Queue: 2 jobs
Job 1
Amino acid sequence: MKKILLVTVSLLAGCASNLIDVRPGSSDILLAKPGQVEGCESKGKIDVSVLARVGFISRSYDEVEANLLQLARNGAVDAGGDTVVKGPSTEYGRRTYLIYKCRP
């Protein structure tokens, strides 16, 4: 029974990464540091969240951060931005990103 539960939880955690939509144009969105966006036009911010734990199993930090960044890039496409800056995280699996338009 424990093996079945462990396999099910592992499969669900792995599937969570595949559920993030990759919007056209999102691969062109840059990730910058705060000092790199001086002179850029602010397009707002986006609060994103993903599944960070499945039951008692935590997903890998790198996978969670990659999913959060992809959601931020998707949001930047929708907002007309071309750059995002990582903002604060209130809890594991949640983060705010600032969106900017830096390129003509």
Job 2
Amino acid sequence: MEVINTLGRRKTAVARLYMQAGTGKIVVNNRDYKEYFSVPTLQYKVEQPFMVAQLMGQYDVKANLDGGGVTGQAEALRMAIAKALVEINPELRPALKSQGFLRRDPRMVERKKPGQPKARKRFQFSKR
């Protein structure tokens, strides 16, 4: 089997993924994903597409993550894995799509406005 290359995004995080048949090893930025994502909930997010497709431990994943925070990176990686699984087997698409793994989450940080300390927060109003 050839190497499948996909891309996943969330907020400002980008995950470039290389997947091939193997023993289920997931390497993120040259480190094991359990070491990279130390929080169990983030590890679960990375494993979700394999659990839904019932393919846990059948593919080796090598991912390069860039930008954003750890949660955004984990969700970007989840999207990239789901896209790769659909590329391998198109019959998995309905199951992964129903879980929302193939949809790019459009929510982004709102920009800071001039004359305000943050996007929506205002400086304290003084009447006198």
